[in-house]
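User: Good morning. I'm curious how cytidine-5'-monophosphate would be positioned relative to this chain. Could you predict the structure with it bound?
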Amino acid sequence: MLSGKKILVGVTGSIAAYKSAYFVRELIKLDAEVKVVMTEAACEFISPLTLSTLSKNPVAIEFIKDEETGEWQNHVDLGLWADLFIIAPTSANTLSKLVSGNADNLLIATYLSAKCPVWIAPAMDLDMFKHFSTRDNLEKLTHEGVNVIEPTSGELASGLDGKGRMEEPEVIADLINDFFIGDSLLIGKHIVITGGPTYEAIDPVRFIGNHSSGKTGVLLADECAKRGAKVTLITGPTNSQVIDKNIEVVQIKSAVEMKTAVEEIWNNCDIGIFSAAVADYRPKLAAEEKIKKSDKNLTIELVKNPDILLWAGEHKKADQYLVGFALETENEIENGFKKFEKKKLNLLVLNSLKDKGAGFGHDTNKVTFLKEDNKIVEFELKDKSAVMVDIINEIEVDLSQE
Ligand code: C5P
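Assistant: Good morning! Here's the predicted structure, ligand included:
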C-alpha cells in the first residue's frame, strides 16, 4: 500500500496518455496521494479534468506566478512535494528534453527541481523507439539514475507491431508499490503500538487524564504500515487518525482496558512499541452516578495502575523486540537506563522536557535512544514524523543484526 506516499505523475503527448487515467486510478486505489503535471500536447490526448477528478487534485500545466512574491514557483513546489516522480507516458520529445534540460514547459522544469527518484515509462512507435537518439537518451538517463520502465511489444497505435507500448498501468503501480515497501525487514511482522493518553474515570462524566495528543502512536503506526508490517494500534482518546486503512485500531479509555487489549495479542506480536502516556494512578472506585457537588472538600483515593510495558517486558520471548518511551526531568540518562533494564527493553526513546520544541503539544521532538551495552544515540530537534522514521529505522537496523 502507498498510504502517505506522494506520487507526481507526468503525462506527455503520446497516444498512451489515455492510460494515465487508469494509472492514476491504480495509484489512488493503493492509497497514494497523487498530483498530475501535463504538457500542452498531453492535453490533446486526455482531458486535464479527467485526471484532476481521478487524482482529487488540480492538474498543473502552466507556470503559475505567485501574486504575493511575484515568483514562479509551482515547478519547485511540485518537485519538492513528490516522493516519486513518474512520467508515464514519456514521449520521444520529452525524453530528449529530459536529457538536454530544455525547460520550456512545467513538466521539464519540475523534473529539474525534483529531489525524489524519477521514473519514466516511454511510449512511442517501434522505429522511434529503436532510433539511436532514443537509445542514446535512455542510456544517459539510466546512467543518471532515472529508472526506465521498458515499453512492451505488441500492436501499436500506428497499426505496426513491435516494441513501444507503454507498460500497463497496473504493472507500473505494482512496481512503485514494491519500490516503497522495498526489502524492509518489517514486511509481514506484527507490531503492536500503544498510544495516546488514558482517561481514568472518577464518575460517568469526569476523569483524570493528561495532555498527550496521541499523534506519536498514530505516526508510528503509519510508518510501520508503510513498510509492510501488520499493525495493531491500541490507543487512548485522540483526534489524530491513521492514514493506512490496514491498521487495526483498538480504541480504549483506561489503563486497565489498554492492558487487557495488549495482553490479548502480545504473545502473537513480533514487536511492541509502547508510546502511550498511561496514567500512573486511577481512582480506586469510579462512582456509578455523577458525584454531586457539596460544600465539603472531596478526597479521591487513587490506586496504582498496571505498568503495561513492564508486563510486556516480563512476558517477552527471546525473539520479541520491545520499545519503550520515557520522559524524565532529572538525571535523564541514568534514570532512562534503569527503566531500560527493569522493563527488559531493546530500545528506550528518551524525551526531554528541557529542550525547546520537545515534549507534549509540539510538532517537533528531540529524542535520545538508549540501548544495550549503555549505548546512547542523540538526535537533533526534528519534525515528529522524522523522529518516528528514526525510531523505526533503528528497529530495522537491530533486526538486521539478529
Ligand atoms: O515508567 P514510565 O511511566 O516513565 O515509563 C514510560 C513507558 O512505559 C512508556 O513507554 C509508556 O508507554 C509505558 N507505560 C506503560 N504502562 C504504564 C506506564 C507507562 O505501558 N502504566
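The chain is about 35% helix and 25% strand. The pocket of cytidine-5'-monophosphate is lined by residues 194, 255, 274-276, 278, 305-309, 324-326, 339 (CB under 6 Å).
Let me know if you'd like a different ligand tried.
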